[in-house]
Fold each of these.
Amino acid sequence: MLRIARTDAQLALVIGHELAHANLGHLDARLVNTVVGWAGGAVLDAGVMFGGISTNGAFSKAFSRAGANAFSVEFEREADYVGAYYAVRAGYDLAGAEEIWRTLSLEQPDSIRIVATHPITPARFVQMQKVAAEIMEKQRRNLPLVPELKNVRADADPTMAPEENVH
């Protein structure tokens, strides 16, 4: 991402996105999801083992991967959204910054159509246009630049600057 960012605003989006992951607790949630997935798979591995068949941990490995990827697309969308607010609050203009997603789709064509852990790039492009318009409207109306998240974890406060939101 750092290689394809062509403007300071695009770079600010990438950095804001990563800060948002940390501030919204996505990294901790992913770890919990991974452990829960692993535990469920381990139970299945043990059950099959009692039947006399060794799985070599196949279920715990597969469920661990599934747990790690649970909610990842939603986490990415949320981080894009909050990260855009961070970038604007840091003084960057988002006009045209959504082009980073077009550039990424040229660099990685599979990102246009394959949803695994991240939203497809066209969806991210459109979302960023909508977020930029939302932010511009708030600026026009002199409203606080606060993301309007509905499912934010209770221990993360997106209204705070990233450096103030360390738990």
Note: The longest helix spans residues 26-50.
Amino acid sequence: MTSKKTFPSQTIDVRALPASELDDRSPLWWGNTLNLVMETVVFGGLIAMYVTIVMNTDPFPPVRTTSGLPIIRNAVPDLFLPTIGLIVLLVSLIPAIWLDISARRKNVRSIKIASNLTLLFNIAAIIIRYYEFDSLNFKWDDNAYGSILWIILIMHLIHLVVLLGEDLSVEIWIFFKGVDEKQTIDLTVAAVYWYWIVGVWVILYLIIYISPRLM
């Protein structure tokens, strides 16, 4: 006859635990952070390609001899529109930080206002980027220098568009469903994504538009 050893059953009361967590306690936060690490590596590779092309281009910047356009011997990228775009992105940090703080405090009224502002700044940045390609003074197929400039701008534009899609989905959800725990997490993660987009562009702006003037 086999003897059975019984163990006292134990239960854990988890009713006091929060339904969700922010920052490094959230799986979504870790997923977003790891994604940004990978994207940073991608931009690092593009910057390395840019430096390699610059070092092997003589003269630098190359002479623009594009058919149908005036010849430019010192074809440094124009500063006017890209600088406006940079200012727009830097100013956009104000509503982005406000949205981040409002989401953490679950202030629904502030969330609705700040989310609309960040959406408008995102759209403005995309529109400026669309016209910014002319500031490069080269087409994508003119030479290696023009190609890497276009690739870098397009890659950053893709991130602007991706975040625009996320902002729109959150806006629609808030309009029809209101703000819940999941949305507050999404908003804080999106804010981190936006901080990264702005920070990366500051570095790229200095490399693309300022460094050629110092060489």
Note: The chain has one domain: 25-214.
